[in-house]
Structures
1.
Amino acid sequence: MSEKRSDQIKYSILKFLDVTGFTVLDPVIRLIFREETDKQCKAIGKFLVVPILFLFFCLTMWWKIAPQHKTKSGEVPTPDKVWNSAKINHTFDYRETTKSEDFIARSESRKEILKQVQAQIVSIRSEAEQAKNQVLLMEEKFKNDFLPSKLEVPNTNLSNYLTEVNILSNRRKEELNVLKAEVMNGKTTKKEFVHFLEEQDKLVDQEKKILKELRSVISEIRSQKFKPLEKARSVYNNLANELQFLKKREEFLTKSNRSVRVQEANDKLQLSIEDLELATTEKDIYLRAKKVIRQKESIARLEGQQYASAVTVYKQIKRSIFTVLCGFLMAAIIAIPLGIMCGLNKVVMACLTPFISVFKPVSPVVWLLIFQIIVGAFFPDPETHPFFLFFSSIPYIGSLNINPALVFSACTVAICAVWPALVNTALGVSSIDKDHINVARVLRLGFKDRLFKIIIPSSLPYVFAGLRISLGVGWMVLIAAEALSSSDGLGKFVWDEYQNGSSYSFANIIYACFVVGIIGFCLDRIMIVLQRIVSFDGGTTSV
Amino acid sequence: MRERFVDIFDLVKAYPNPFGEDIRVVDGFDLKVKEGEFVGVIGHSGCGKSTVLNMVAGLIPSSEGSIVVGEKEVIGPGPDRAVVFQAPCLLPWMTSFENVLLGVKQCYPHGTPDERKQIVEHSLGVVGLQDSMFKYPREMSGGMQQRVGIARAIALKPKMLLLDEPFGRLDSLTRMDLQDVILDVLNREKITTMMITHDVDEAVYMCDKICMMTNGPGAKVGKLLRIDYARPRNRQQMMIEDKYFHYRENLLTFLEDCEKQKETLKAIRS
């Protein structure tokens, strides 16, 4: 009985892997359940170990080749640098969210958090001091031990060579003077004098060249990295950053905290009200009453205030996904009914074919510009437009900062994603099994039944295949659109980094490349699963 | 019992060839069927048997002639003439229950859901699928799928049942089972039936009357053969009697003659 149960578990896991398209892991599961161990091991070796080894091979190649190519934005980042930039982005996001939480913390919880933060500050401060000492120590070492030891040989070479060159050039000057005199006397011909001068010039050039090479060797050694120093510095920098962050938190928990500021303002208001009571002259009463009103207004404003958080990668990701889903939804809403109409009616198909064939190949960039203009005209004053006010009032979506840029990005995604879905739906509807149509005819099904019981179910696999392509296209288009239009999102993140040109920028761009890829992969997987669920024949779809 | 329940008169089906001339695939097909009779149509493949059946079903329009089923001229397809196709033609996204229900809803628009359910359950029970009502077509064997197809047809309570080589894609054992299923149903319900087949034994076993078609183009009824066995029939019992072989002989000779004619025609042409 227990064996049967484990079999059930096994088959449900295998089924899950099959539906999600992770059939690569199939032998691993079978191995765990001890099914034909030899065969599974072979399969794992072939389809899991070899690809992983290849992955490692590629990573090492990247590691080796990347630093050899120097660019304007520094070396091409190695995998570890990219990983590091991922971590930095993560910490940045964590810190921003913590600060925004601190900003709105109230009463008891605020005091508790403050206590923790202050304790942390004390411990980190001592650590940071130690780290600083370490850095100083290492700098000493670098100056006193590391550099001299490396520089010794080329340095002596250089000084020796310099003296040699000095002696030679002095000797040449003397010779020149002698020759000048001889030319005047007529002992040597002028022709010989020219020859002599040429020879001298050549020698001087050669000396200069050698000197330059020696100097460059020395400067390279000077610029060489002393690993312990680098390490100490990075440890110290991290601690210093952490310390700064904690101090900022302390500030947000005390004097910059919202509730604290509201409290202060309330106190002031109380004083003003008392003042108002004491006022006697007409003018005083008027002025003080005005003051009370002003203070009341400012309190109301304070209470609604939120922490102005910097835009982190995670926020960009959320916004990008939201935008692509909006665009995709628009595309689906347009494409599916139109596609069904095209598939059902040849006249509709003939009407739409020219549009499909002309607009399908248009570049997303052109669409972006067109929609930028069109959408811009719809919302002359986006801040107060009811459309955006409505979206901002929805709890979760409101925090994504819905603006015209998002609308036209989504429109661009929609117009580019509409074609694959439309064409596939039309194909699916028009290629219904003729037998099924005959069944419908014999049963004399009405249009509604025919549509919902026969046509739509039988074309669903095609529709979802089209939607899957659409989502992929939409995601690619979106990143480009965001980069081009500076609409917040992953594309803008990449573009900003490109414009930034700091030492992390290049690594950040490559990090973003992976993020975009992984999200695209996940979206595609979700579509595959949906496609598998709706495909009645249980057929496999290409991965 | 009406003598001319189904009256097919001078039926013609013509398709234009690439030169715009009409090719008469079926030319002057005449057949009268009594109410409750089981008539088989036999002939070589490609002679136009299915074309005739599709015209009776109303799935394709006839070029000339008329078809009357139960005093009503056939204009288009309808549930009064239920068809069992060669492929089961079930809708793969529906269970067998839903597949049958789809037709029942059309035929009994005023029935309550409970009544419909009873009809579906009854007709699935008749074909022996009480236990597979909620299975999807992909979970069933070809034979079971065809049973659902039969259940779907009889659930419509049709005036006429049209079988288009219903066992063509089944193995011989399943085929015999299904032949008995259909005969059982017919013994009970007495539906006028027309079956296309090219299996001689099947035709003799199942039919009251066999209509042999000449080879196309221009196919028509070549010969009518009445099979005199009482119903319900017993396969073994029938085989013992001499007339069984007489019927068989008759059919086979006709088919062979048709083939010979074709050969000679070919020889003349070339």
2.
Amino acid sequence: MNVLNLLNAMPGAFAQGLIWGITAIGIYITYRILDVADLTVDGSICTGAAACIMMMLSGHNVYVSMLVATLAGMLTGLVTGLFHTFMGIPAILAGILTQLGLYSVNLKILGKANQAIGVEKYNLLVALRYIRNVPFYKNTIFVVAVCILLLVVILYWFFGTELGCSLRATGCNDRMSRAQGINTDFAKVLGLMISNGLVGLSGALLAQYQGFADVNMGRGAIVIGLAAVIIGEAVFGRIFHNFGFKLIGVALGSILYYIVFQTVVWMGLDPDLLKLLTALVVATFLAIPYWKGKYFTRANVKKGDHLNA
Amino acid sequence: MLEIKDVTKVFNPGTVNEKLALDHFSLTLEDGDFVTVIGGNGAGKSTMMNAISGVWAVDSGEIIIDGINVTKLPEHKRAKFLGRVFQDPMTGTAATMGIEENLALAKRRGRRRFLGSGITKKEREEYRELLKILDLGLENRLTSKVGLLSGGQRQALTLLMATLQKPKLLLLDEHTAALDPKTAAKVLETTEYIVNKDHLTTLMITHNMKDAITHGNRLIMMLDGRIILDIRGEEKKNLTVEDLLHKFEAVSGEEFANDKAILG
């Protein structure tokens, strides 16, 4: 167990954590703002990756490819949204259906199970190789960090607009929202599209970073993203109250997740067991607020106080 | 202002739980009417309000608000005409959003929502002034999350939200039922004030016969999805709870079996 090995792995963990941070921000929008657990993510992250890689392999510029990846992700969100609102399927099931369908779609986009892209031949925005010995503005960590800051600024602005507020209201109380004239179906579809657009973009960055898109790369993405959301809230929740900072907290949570991930690998844990570990960690963290409410709350009534309605 | 024509609604048709909630129900409200609605559990009071608001489609009949047939409009489009306050204080507001944000949502009822600012500086001042009406000190807590407010404060806020854009029709669905008597009286007082100030056409469901008699210019009593009593004008002014009970027994042939309505 050489500490230097661990330290060497850290920049990689940072880069990977940041890229997944974009997925985590997408998941935050559905899970926390819309109050929907959207399982589309497992499919849409790969859709974004596949769209980006295939666009680049056919000679398109990296920015155009990433834009197409984002739009492809939004399209998957639209499908889940319509399953849920127009067809009345419960949100979780709607996401699972889209995810399953996307497996075939992703295979068709890629043409085979795995497509590689070489960093020598293509002008990638991020890559494993762009972590050390490159000028800072080409460094993947810097590029993705700037990307996240930009996204946070845009999202912060958006959720302050009339449309953004109607989305937040829908997630909080949909009966009240309809009574105030908000089309809650539209708000839900829009939220799912924004979320999966971000996930698609994250997939596009991830595929460039690891140098390939694989049809199985999205497995468990929702859980990893949720882990990042939960870790981010647990660690930074008390410091960050502003919405923009909360989103940054989620991205930082994703970095923490990958640091822990690298550390347990370095400690010699069988990598095959990592998904099990992630699932257990997320399950535990999700249980904590429930247990707190069930076993550790006592009504905070002082003598002489009355519990008025 | 409001015309309900021959509306019928059956819940769970074809099952053992089939329930005829509105039975060829008709009601017409004039501009400025303040109508109180009473009736036992399952009489169809809330069903009538949900039919007006468009929570679901009615089976037959028509609903016309201010000359516009809204029978086929979805709930969020009818919201343009309606101000609504619900029985449960949790229902009328968004708990995780601030007081001013809730008001700003209500301010945009019936308008297109796009990328304009969710709340402007000018609005904040306007809301601060408006909240003073409630006399609950909320004008100094504009950014507080609504989830931190008490039930009475939330109902008062919902009332303000429902009337921020002057509605064609104000629907109050037992909006004081979940409050303690003192708070309920205060919210009712505020209701009376706002309704008079803006000259609002109002439908108010209440389980309290005394409130139903004291407020408004017309009283209707419902039973089994129909109106069985309709009292207005001078007759309403001189009405007592005893009169109402006698009338109910005469019309329905049974005793009014709701202690809460009589004693409350």
3.
Amino acid sequence: MEAVNNVQSKKLRKEKVAAPKGRRWRKFKENSPYLLMILPAVLVVFLFNYLPIYGILIAFQDFMPGDKILSDSTIWVGFQNFERFFTDPMFWPLMQNTFLICIIGFIIGFPLPIIVALMLNALKGKRMAKVIQTIFNAPHFISLVVLVGMLTLFFGRYGLVNNIAASIGGERYSYFLESKAFRPMYILSSNWQDFGWSAIIYIAALSNVDPQQHEAAILDGATRFQRVWSIDLPAIMPMISVMLIMSIGGLMGVGYEKALLMQTDGNLQVSELISTYVYKRGLTGVPDQAYATAIGLFNSIINVVLLIIANTTSKRFSENSLW
Amino acid sequence: MAKEKAPKRALRDTVGDKIFYTINIIVLLILTLIVLYPVYFIVIASFSDPDAVLAGKVVLYPMNITFEGYSKILERTDIWRGYGNTILYTALTVVLSLLVTVPAGWALSRKTLPAKKLFMIYFIIPMFFGGGLIPFYNVVSSLGLVNTIWAVVLPSILSVWNLFMTKTFFESSIPSSLIEAATIDGAGSFRIFGSIVLPLSKAIIAVMALYYAVGQWNSYFNAMIFLQDETLYPLQLVLKEILIASESTTGGSGETILQQYRLANQLKYVSVIVSSVPVLCLYPFVQKYFAQGVMIGSLKE
């Protein structure tokens, strides 16, 4: 059956190569239902992904909300909005805040899931590993609003941490009004929420390790730790590389959703990020949309450049790359 | 017990290995506690006496159990209206997103899709580059969606990541011989998709439905920027006001603040519980599907 199919499809392919125009048209007609199936997705992506890319043009204009993007009265200002950003007193603080929260988050958040996956994999009881993994994955499904709400309940002036501190005679400390506490709270809560979820991908890769490799290593007298180090870890190395490239691509791409929820007047000097600044300048107060769009574009260009650098570097030194 | 089952293995476990296993399990159990405790605390605090909570006495078990908070939240019409809105938005998002994502994923997985390369590039670009917040806002606004539920629903009905996950699933789990056989039998593309492919794809449909549902259930940002009418607010936006808005506006004298805190605090604990109950109840039953999704996604990478 398989063989017959093969012969048939080979025949079909041959015919296709030599197909005259009429047959190619028939082939197209035969496959046109696929075009219909893909059409809604093409439309949605066009509306919400490509039209905004076209909208970037306003970054090079003197644009007022309600203006048309291209019309006779469009005033082009070149790179003026970008120059404004580079001389904005907020420029360096924003760059620094965004970079620091990403890099510290990366240093803690990147290895943690790998270590957890290796540890879960080395657990003897497979049932227990399943149960623990289920628990580790759960916080991923808590919404950001609830997560930040929980942070305020634990670290607020009258939250659990302060209540315990006060009951043993300590001082109350307003974690949410202090700049110093913002980054640790932001990064640790993100890790609390996602370390288990991020580990899944490594756990899946680990389940593909050939058990015979382990058996052979045991016969050679390798300890369990040696086996983790020289069998398990190399086995997930390709996955680690891919995740590394993606993380580096996102190194300046921290979103506004969580930071906005955690911002207070007290911690603004470290919690104002490029993305939250774009939101504030572009959509609140007296909106300056052209300026905000320029800042956003600057940010996404940095991300694309970082991604390309990471990918090229990885390609040069190993076999692993995204493209 | 281990001796009877696997005597060889028991012999192999050296002292060093035993130490390794012990440390491993201890660290994992500590991590488990770190994950569970905050959730546990919210639960016990939600039905403990608010004064005991504020005094820092409630740490390991509930004290002076009271359900005042729960009866108070029944009176909060904004929360229940938010609940209703969120259910509506989530249901619409799931239905529409499946209608858009699954057929497109199937089409993309076919080698015979005309201009396949072009379509692939078309969908890959948005994964790495986008217009950003302001142009996105302007598009939604110029489509006339601001302050309608469609501003919340429509932008969420297609995630390119999910589309590629669906495509990978179809490529790896629908045998091509099956499709070829059906084609030879004269079935059209739509028939094949409807009566052969879909029945074999329950797993990916479940995964997609769950991903889109959780995404919409938990999101607040699009609703915050696009909806002005409070009666349209989804649950997360109502929660945001209850949970977070008050923290930065701390002022006034100690006593009144404490009194306000006393009242507001219990409501916070209760609203965290009430809003998370559906997801938490569903979670143990559906978690294997979520994990499956991550694995499908990782196949190609």
